[in-house]
Amino acid sequence: MRLATWSMLAVSASCAPASGPEQGEPAGSTAQPLESNQYTVNFKTWSGHYLVADKGGGADLMAYSTQALEWETFTLTDLNGGSLVNGDTVTLQSISNQYGSALNGGGSTVRFTATAPQSWEQFTLQKLNGTGTVVSGDSIALKTVVTGQYLSAANAGGSTVSAAGASAREWETLTLGITASGGGGGTGGPDFGPNVFVFDPSMSAASIQSRLDQIFQQQETNQFGSQRYAYFFKPGTYNVDVRVGFYMSVFGLGQSPDNVTINGAVRAKADWFNGNATQNFWRGAENLSIVPTKDSNTNIWAVSQATTMRRIHVKGSINLWDNAYQNAWSSGGFIADSKIDNVINSGTQQQFLTRNTSLNNWQGQNWNMVFVGDEQAPSGTWPNQVYTVVDTTPVIREKPYLFIDTNGAYAVRVPSLRTNSKGTTWSAGTTAGTTLSLDKFHVARSDRDTADTLNAALGAGKHLLLTPGIYHLSRALQVSNPNTIILGLGLATLIPDQGTAAMNVADVDGVTVAGVLFDAGVNNSAVLLSVGSAANTVSHAANPTALFDVSCRVGGAQAGNATVCVTINSNDVLIDNIWLWRADHGNGVGWDTNKGINGIIVNGNNVSAYGLFCEHFEGYQTLWNGNNGRVYFYQSEIPYDVPNQSRWTHDGVNGYASYKVANSVTNHDARGLGIYSVFYNPVILENAIETPTTPGVKFQHMITVFLGSTPGAAINHIINGTGAAVTNQNMVSKSSY
């Protein structure tokens, strides 16, 4: 008698199948390398018997075996691509490469005779012990896509199997054993975990689009959620619409951006917020080309802070705001090492930085547009055109990127240092640099790695590839070896739970920290990220440490606390697109709730920053103590939530300047700065910028904007007592010094 109770299909890890005396490898069978969406699996029934493709294929599916040998081993292909999750459509192949077919689409036997997967050979995988990602050991059921009937082992195992089950009960419950996975590589590549989806051109556009839509629907509004995702597109052409939401990163895996072409879009819109993109944070796209076919053949990239577009070739036009809406603000943004064939229109963007990019035809301006090392940068006269143009980039190396080499193996390219550069690294040929095989990396996963395992890998000389997820740390990560690469995917997030730093980088050459979100824990950290232990005279000019696409957050997801987000003690450090944010909205937000004093303190000399976004801290947003500093593009909002003037005063001065250069500094170069206020209460900031008055300290193209409407609130001056006050909503003052 069958019990009418809910039943589970459990998946158990198992050893690789081995030959037994009752089975030999069927004639003509071959061991094929797994593709990125394929798994080697077995299925165990409720009674402990394994499903068997009798004779290795060419006969009916049975359930009589007590061991998982060759005939009990199947190749499961996930037609949705990427990691295996509840609800995916799958096919099964026997060891002889024949497909399992539910005759008539269901209601009868299952036979391994098909040579190609059609509708009868497709099954929906249901996870019975939860939702989300399916792993080895889970309880599952398989349902035909044609009739919706379940694979059912008679008497829960020991004899025949049909596709006639009406619901998932004991006879339909299977334990899934996963013994191998493609893991993103056609040669049995790395295990990137459940939050990385790898696509290749052999997959149908419909199946890829289904996965893209599924993730985007979850992430479109998920501003402070815990989910993180990355998409990898292998070299080839794809006809898909890649919509990019919160904590989503899109990567091409070619050696050149032109090796991966998306016909459709890689776009960030603001439908979720009625066209307002000022909160479209934490997302990016890298190393691919786009042929826009959506939105009137224009790629929409309506983004704000903590976003990136690198090594992108737009074979058409791009809008940097969501032009489907009127008065749709956006507050970005950053593009580097890219090429735009037609028009790039900034629209409502309040500010934007492009670096080493071929622009062709830039249109638009608002408050602060900065162009560094670009080809065909726009021209104009400040302040009528708010363009700050730096002809060449003084010193930079581009962010490392993952790609598949000519042997089909995953590797990381580390671009070379460039000085006085203009344009991209790739338009004229292969990007100069060195290549590291992925076996030199510890591929980290948040579901299994800890501070101890990550530090052990670092201590053993490994680089870190942080796959998407939230990593809770009991102590700081210690980066002590020169040239170490910490490369985050999908906004990989580090949270120091015990009030320590999240990461300490030693005063060594050539470290890279890229694509990481440092999120303050509830217990106050004195600093989240430190580079170098103390100011010194050691030069790293020939091989500088670099920070790419780094975010620090204090509050928003939780009531985090950090005295300082980033401290730079080493010399010659490169900063390329960094957002330091004490949250003004979200969870755990308030003057005495998410405490943060400084966004960044720079003690090292010869530090260069291209794209420094720093907002809402309770003291100086930026405190620069080192000499020969360079900042090209600065965006800052001073704190909204100052309770009253008495709590925001020092040394007889009202407020704390957003940008403070120490009195001991003799040389500093800052260009293209926008500092804005939205005071909730009637408080005054005396100076947006404070610097020593000396010929070597130079500021070019500064702007203050009053965004609020609180009577009695104001920014009195732009810099050192000069520049007109801003006191009314949307009032703007511009100056050079």
UniProtKB/TrEMBL annotation:
Protein name: Secreted protein
Extent of the signal sequence: 1-18
InterPro entries from the UniProt entry: Actin-crosslinking, Fascin, Pectin_lyase_fold/virulence, SACTE_4363
GO biological process, one term: establishment or maintenance of cell polarity
Keyword annotations from UniProtKB, A to Z: Signal
SUPFAM superfamilies in UniProt: Actin-crosslinking proteins, Pectin lyase-like
Organism: Cystobacter fuscus (strain ATCC 25194 / DSM 2262 / NBRC 100088 / M29)
One annotated Gene Ontology cellular component of this protein: cytoplasm
Record's keyword annotation contains Signal: yes
Gene Ontology MF annotations: actin filament binding
Domain of life where this protein originates: Bacteria
CDD domains: beta-trefoil_FSCN-like, GH55_SacteLam55A-like
Keyword Protein biosynthesis recorded: no
